Amino acid sequence: MVALVYSFLALVLVGAQAFQPDRLDLQLEQIVEKFTEEMKALKQEIEDMKRVQAPGSSRHIGSEPKSERQISGQNGDVELTEQTETSICTLGLRGRDGRDGAPGRDGAAGRDGQPGPQGPIGPMGDIGPQGPAGEKGETGADGNAGGSVYIRWGRTTCPNDTDTSLIYDGIAGGAHFTHSGGGANYVCLPKDPEWGVFTDGSQGTGAYMYGAEYQLSSNNPFQGVSLHNHDVPCAVCHVTSRGSKLMIPARLSCPSGWTREYKGYLMTAYRTQYRSEFVCMDGEPETRPGGHLDSDGALFYPVEASCGSLPCPNYVQGRELTCVVCTK
Question: How many whole angstroms separate alpha carbon 73 and alpha carbon 86?
């Protein structure tokens, strides 16, 4: 009987080894421990059955249910009952290794979590290559460049041009030709001055503004008109469509792309007087009505070429220099 049980145990152990070699030690230990307990219970059960079959016992094998009926062997020894066989089968099932099952299916996706805090700004990357130039846009309308302003010396009007307008006409003035101080330039004074804080009378503590006269007693380039000692008028003109202006001495025409406003002769103070500036007097000058007295003040003289450091030719000694005012 005991040999049969051990043979069965050996079969169980072999099966366990076949199923799980890598966990054999742990399973053997568990099976042996369990088997020891079962054997103790089986041994006790066999002892109890032997006592039942002993003479004088009131229990009979034939009267017990099949689940507890004993099976006799050929040698007359009591063998296992069906209940015992069931226990051994149960023991064999209990000795089966617990292999891992197949992975289950993936669960449903969980809900999105809350956004985390924004991380720090990373360093700026390298500048990429320059892209191709885009298509040229349509040309816009001509704008107003602000125009230009110039003084037309010797005239009270501006050139007859749709783009040119008169700001005001006035009287040419400047410092007295005998004064070493005061301004060194000619100005175009308006005919109707406006006053601020003033003191009447001559205090002799400041500079003086004088009117200007033509000085053309001998060399008068303005043929057909007598201008000597006459007061000089002037006009301040505005050109709306051309933002640059230029006075060119010794020329009567403008460079290509420029517009001639007027032409004339170069004039300034006399060579032994205190210096003033060179201005372009219109070639068809006017005079101020009633201003023909020899009052002096600021004076205008023609300018002649003087050879030497000034190359002759193309300049000629003693010739009066022309001038032109151009805008663009």
Answer: 18
